[in-house]
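Re: [help] complex structure
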Amino acid sequence: MRKTLPGLIALAAASTLALTACSSDRVDNPATDSTTGSTASGTELCIPEGSTIGVSLPQKTSENWVLAEQLFNDGLTAAGFEPIVQFGNSGVTEQQNQIDAMVEAGAKVIVVGAIDGSQLGTQLEAAKATGATVIAYDRLVKNTEAVDAYIAFDNYQVGVLQGTALLEGLAERVGDGPYNIELIAGSSDDANAMPFFEGAMSILQPKIDDGTLTVVSGQTTFEQVATQGWKAENAQKRMDTVLSGFYAGDVALDGILSPNDTLARAALVAVAQAGKVTPVITGQDSEVESVKSIVAGEQYSTIYKDTRELVAQTIASIVELQNCGEIPINDTEQYDNGVKIVPAFLLTPKIVTQANAAEVYANDDTLGPLTAG
Ligand code: GAL
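Output below.
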């Protein structure tokens, strides 16, 4: 079935587990406290047709964010809303100002992919004060009550899949251990970076402890391996330093844990420039260049988080709110944002390697031909 956005929205609306009406699980929907009109067919509406919906996106640090912008604009317009979709390209202050402007414009729902999930409390509290609903998209919003739900792929599970793939790739491509590896994490201001890292280390740490894996540089803490701003040049620079400092001569670098594709490709540049053979390296986001690299047998794995499904789930949740319903939730335990457990709807990420790439992407025409080159 070719996945079109309207089709995915309808599927998300039909197949999600709606939250029970139980007060302890109910996601606040101030709009349902009073109906604000109805459709021509008389359906009660809690969010009027044509209402403004704000979508505040972080920065274009990977292709999934670029795709999300287009999908939100198209999907919200098709659903009869007035979208304001903006990137905080120049950083946190710009994103704060954009959210303030969305509130000023009367947005009934604010969807936010935070650059820094801990620095939006003031803006989102102002949004809640107007009766708007706040949905954290892909990345959790932290240290504030002013977030009603979190819609994302299970990002701890992303890390578990990455750690598992690294071990499998080492066995498959290097043979028996022990192995030399290095670790890379995402940007420390991205609320996802720690769950990615913790998920992976839940798999890798026992193997470090038993001597199967050695992190030759000794850089094993999140703070030591985080990559500010998800910038490729920061990852490449750190790998250059690690390679020149710890991998002189014929010391092999067998594997690298990379949290996403952009940083994986940057690390591979550093490895090639150091004259080392391609290590087993993980990634995330199914970026076009990385999928081609995986099909060609270079990068070992990526993660498929179908942005169309994530956007569709978010828009279907907004349609639920418009119809005086509640945001569908399937997890009420995992995501503690520092002041509350944020009710979440978690989608399932998929690991992709050369063995299953063609099958996984069979219905995704956003990638184009999968052949290398
Ligand atoms: C994360 C997101 C990843 C990747 C990364 C860098 O928050 O979940 O899929 O896009 O940002 O952009």
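The longest strand covers residues 52-57.
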